[in-house]
Specification:
With 418 residues, the chain is of the alpha/beta class. 34% of the residues lie in helices and 25% in strands.
Length: 418
């Protein structure tokens, strides 16, 4: 029997996934708070008779961020274990390769602007990045693969991960030894997007997401009356010069053929228009693909900022938190997914994606084992489902759920039986 004949999503499972996705969308939970989501996943795995471990992972920041920088930023990370992560195990006919399949579960601190029956019921919290779909799809994958245990060799590990949106839940789960006992040979994941329609996927080998670092700059000067600037050291002017100067690092010091972004998204200082503030704070992000470019930009920021401030009679501190590394897809795993997807959804629905500059903590898994994260289309322009992840009007064509399950399951079968 061919893979396309084996891999089926029944109408009952499809309906269940749509209902489950809407339930999750209505009840989003922020990073490290995915308690109800975790209970729902555990209950589903229990019903299927899939053995699983709960309380896996937690806050991973202390495992990959510098302790002094965290302290300077005023961040106290939580425990790395005992969190909401779940690791499920599905064993095939006999021992063989081990494949990890991952879904992230957390939502974002965004107020949803969609007018839909399944709109978030929590003000200021929304599944704006599609993790409700990711979680639902992996539960569907668990059900289908569990019914096909006599069709593959080896083991599938199901990684339901908390805290992708910043705290690095993937690192904490790795620290909880999810890649061991038995050792994982390869990993698979997906991420939804509106660049393509539901029923389509996109993928590529090499860098697909950027290393994502966090930048905080505190400028200190001398406050005073706005009418007497000569008696003050104006931190807002200093901050403005720093902001502009930072842009020259990418435009004049980084190879134009190397992707890099330095963005300051917040500048705060003062409370009144007629008062020069004694301090100002800037917050931003640095995104890169190349480790060498990442090192260059951090070094130049640390050199440039204090020097510019001093030249203008002020002082400035740089807090630079190294975040997720570059997410790189393994070429052989991409070939597996492309071949599997071609069989179950057709070659016309398999595209090559462009690399992006968003961050992704699956990169920590990809540093350790060959990994493929593919893009799953969820767009439907006719229904105005066109807004990208992290937008308050992000939504998804739920036809994508079955497509995601089919591609995931077919890829798992193809990899494990190859």
């Amino acid at each position: 029997m061919s893979i396309s004949e084996l891999v089926q999503v029944s109408p009952e499972l499809d309906a269940w996934m749509r209902e489950t996705r809407r339930h999750l969308h209505m009840n989003p939970e922020l990073s490290l708070q995915e308690n109800n989501t975790s209970r729902l996943v555990s209950g589903h795995l229990k019903e299927l008779g899939i053995k699983h471990r709960t309380g896996v992972g937690g806050d991973g920041r202390s495992l990959f961020m510098d302790a002094d920088e965290l302290k300077a930023a005023g961040i106290t990370p939580g425990p790395t274990t005992g969190g909401t992560g779940i690791l499920g195990i599905i064993e095939g006919r006999k021992p063989g390769k081990v494949l990890l399949i991952r879904a992230d579960m957390d939502a974002l601190p965004i107020d949803e602007q969609n007018d839909v029956p399944y709109k978030s019921t929590k003000p200021g919290v929304m599944h704006a990045c599609g993790h409700d779909l990711h979680t639902t799809i992996l539960m569907g994958v668990a059900e289908v693969l569990n019914g096909l245990r006599d069709q593959f060799d080896g083991t599938v590990k199901l990684m339901f991960q908390p805290a992708e949106e910043g705290p690095g839940g993937a690192v904490a789960m790795i620290n909880d030894k999810i890649l061991e006992d038995p050792n994982v040979d390869a990993a698979l994941a997906l991420h939804v997007g509106v660049g393509i329609r539901a029923g389509q996927i996109a993928l590529r080998a090499g860098p697909v997401n950027a290393a994502a670092d966090t930048l905080k700059i505190v400028v200190r000067g001398v406050g005073g009356h706005a009418a007497r600037p000569q008696a003050a050291v104006d931190t807002m002017v200093v901050a403005a010069h720093i902001l502009i100067a930072l842009q020259t690092i990418v435009s004049r010091e980084v190879d134009p053929f190397q992707p890099a972004v330095v963005t300051i998204g917040a500048l705060h200082g003062g409370v009144a228009g007629n008062v020069i503030p004694a301090s100002a704070e800037m917050n931003g992000t640095v995104r890169t693909h190349s480790p060498e470019v990442r090192d260059l930009i951090e070094r130049r920021i640390r050199e440039m900022v204090p020097t510019l401030a001093k030249a203008m009679r002020a002082e400035a501190d740089v807090i630079y938190l190294r975040g997720y590394p570059t997410m790189r897809n393994d070429e052989a795993m991409v070939d597996v997914v492309r071949a599997a997807a071609t069989e179950v959804i057709g070659a016309d629905n398999v595209f090559t994606r462009e690399p992006g500059m968003a961050g992704e903590d699956l990169a920590f898994v990809a540093e350790r084992v060959p990994t493929c994260m593919f893009g799953l289309g969820v767009a439907d322009p006719e229904r105005d489902i066109i807004y990208p992840p992290h937008h308050p009007r992000f939504d998804a064509d739920e036809d994508a759920l079955a497509c995601g399950v089919k591609v995931m399951v077919a890829s798992a079968l193809k990899y494990l039986n190859s």
